Amino acid sequence: MPGMAGLGAILTAIVTPFDDDLNVDEQAFVDLMAHLRAHGSDGFVVCGTTGEAPTLSDEEHLRLIELACRERPDGATVVAGTGSNDTRHAVEMTERATELGADAILSVTPYYNKPNRRGIRRHYEEIARATDKPIILYNIPSRVVLNLPPEQLAELAQIEHVDYVKQANNEDLQLIDGLGLYAGNDEILARTLDLGGEGGICVASHLVGDEMRRMVDEPGHRAEIDDRLQDVWKVLGVTTNPIPVKAALNLLGRRVGGLRLPLVEADDMELAQVRAVLERHGLLQAAAS
């Protein structure tokens, strides 16, 4: 039943830090978890899009899930991204993540091979057999081509263990019977909370986690905070995620390194826009003090 798993309201889709040679920086990852937990995050989505999962090997992917489960700060939850457009691979990664101690599974709609409605249901039925943990469906048509409309989400909610949806189609944001609702884009967190959703799987919480926590805890100030953070939501979309958030974190002195190709680092214009927003919100000044 949605809400019973206690995954939390602010789940940060955590970036994967790399060293100068673009190897995973495990200590930086652990340090970042501690920082995020201290600044509003209830838990972490590990190896999602923001974590550059497409360029991680399975060994790196599973190692990060293991590290997150072992080194998590007290009270933090770990959601493992295990999605794939190959059902067998998604099942295998889901089984392993479950064994490693993840609290829930994030499973993106199969991309590129464009399964039909029956194929999507079969895909999630197989994944559901591979775990006893809650599964969060991830609807993000901008990246996977396919959209899961509300009536299809309601159908998938009938599958055992399919308990939540991360909704990244802003036009289809609504409560679905049988599914807890997470905002998949930061700019719809306020709307999601107003609807009675669980919270958000967020990127901006790397930077303004305390303020996003207040949006959950202080509903009377939610609209005001959302309005104040509009430029943060916008600048993190100035180019492909996670390019802007990694740029921001590096500017703030949190070592997260570069990105693996085909993603490239922010150019001078993008970096200037990110820096301007950080300055506007006093974040650069706070980091330097």
CATH architecture annotation name:
Alpha-Beta Barrel
Q: Order of strands across the widest beta sheet?
A: 1-2-3-4-5-6-7-8
Low confidence ranges: 1-5
- The total of helices stands at 13
Q: What's the CATH topology label?
A: TIM Barrel
The Rg value, from CA coordinates, equals 18 Å
SSE ordering: EHEHEHEHEHHEEHEHHHHHH
* Portion in helices: 40-55%
Number of domains: 1
How many strands in all?
8
Oligomer designation: single chain
Calculate the mean pLDDT score and round it: 97
The structural class is: alpha/beta
Based on Cα principal axes, name the global outline. globular
Biggest β-sheet description: 8 strands, parallel, barrel
CATH domain class:
Alpha Beta
Strand content: 5-15%
Through-space gap between termini = 45 Å
CATH-assigned homologous superfamily: Aldolase class I
Molecular structure report:
- Strands 1-2-3-4-5-6-7-8 form an eight-stranded parallel beta barrel, surrounded by five helices.
- With 289 residues, it is α/β, with parallel strands linked by helices.
- The chain has a single domain, classed as TIM Barrel (Alpha-Beta Barrel), CATH 3.20.20.70.
- Helix 3 runs parallel beside helix 4 and helix 8 packs antiparallel against helix 9.
- It starts with 9 loop residues before the first strand and ends with a helix.
